[in-house]
Amino acid sequence: MTEVAEGVAVARDYYDSEEADSFYSAIWGGEDIHVGLYDTTADIRTASKLTVDRMASKLGAISGRKVIDLGAGYGGAARVLAEEHQALVTCLNLSSVENERNRKLTEAAGLSERISVVDGSYDAMPFEDESFDIAWSQDAILHAPDRLAVMDEVARVLKPGGLFVFTDPMQADGLTDLSALQPIYDRIHLPDLASIGFYRTALTERGFEVVEIEELTGQLGKHYARVREELLSRKGELGLPDAFADRMAAGLSHWVEGAKAGQLSWAIMLYRKLA
C-alpha cells in the first residue's frame, strides 16, 4: 500500500468508527464537522452554520451553479447551498458512515434532486475535467497525505473562472520550530500541516489568483475549546469509552494551545481559476 493510500485508509477507518461518528454527530448536531464562528454565539451548531453563511456570501449568486464539496462530512453545507442558494451540489467524502447519514438528511430535507453524495477521495476525484463552477471545502484537506494532489484535482475539475473557497486548520507561516505541533501531526498521522503561504504558492502555480484571504485564527482556538468543553460535559450522556473521550480531549487541547501560541492559523480562502 502506498503512503497516500495508507493515509486515506487511516482517515476512512477513523471517521467510519462508531466512537467518531457518535462524537461528531452529537457534538456538531449531525450536520457539520468544521470550525465555527463564535463572535455572536457559544453554540457549536449555530457557529458552524455561521461559517457556511460567511463562505457562501463571498461567492455571489450561485443559483444553478455546480458545486463540488470536498470532504463533505454530513453534508450540512451542501444542504445550505442547495436550499438557501439553489446550487447543485456534489458531496465527495470517503466515510461511508457519514455519507449514509448525509443521504438520509438530504432526502428528509427534500433536496435529493439538488444534492448527490459520492463515495471517494478528493486526491483522485471521479469526475471529468472542468465539471464544476465552484469547489468548496471545510477543514478537510489537512487530512490529505498529498495536498498537492488535491490542488491538482481542484484545478482539473474546475471550469475556467471557477471559484475555490475553503478553510483548513494550518500551521503558521514562517514557523521554524515544529516540535510543539508534533502531537497534532501525530494525531492526524501526517508529518505536517499546510499554511496560508503553502496554498497561495500551490494554487498560483496551478493557474489560480487570490480573491480574498480572511484570517480568523482566533476562531480556531475558540472552536476547539468549545468542542472540548462540550465533550467533557456530555461524555457520559454519549456513552463514549473513557479512553476515546480522554484521547479526544487531549488532542483538542493541543489545537487550543497551538492557536494561543501563534503556531497555528485558520482562514477562509477564496481563489479564482484563471482562463
Descriptive overview:
With 275 residues, the chain is α/β, with parallel strands linked by helices. The chain has a single domain, classed as Vaccinia Virus protein VP39 (Rossmann fold). It is 47% helix and 19% strand. The chain has 10 helices and 9 strands. A 7-stranded mixed sheet has the order 3-2-1-4-5-9-7, with helices on both faces. The chain has a two-stranded antiparallel ribbon with strand order 6-8. The protein is globular and about 50 Å long. The mean pLDDT is 93.
Report the sheet with the most strands, covering strand number, pairing sense and barrel closure. Answer: 7 strands, mixed
The CATH superfamily bears the name Vaccinia Virus protein VP39
Order of helices and strands: HHHEHEHEEHEEHHEHHEE
Shape: globular
Q: Structural class of the helices, strands and pairings?
A: alpha/beta
Query: What is the CATH top level name?
Result: Alpha Beta
Total number of helical segments?
A: 10
**Count of all domains:** 1
What portion of residues belong to β-strands? 15-25%
Low-confidence stretches: none
Strand order in the largest sheet? 3-2-1-4-5-9-7
Radius of gyration: 18 Å
| Mean pLDDT across residues | 93
* Helix content estimate: 40-55%
Write the CATH fold name. Answer: Rossmann fold
End-to-end distance: 37 Å
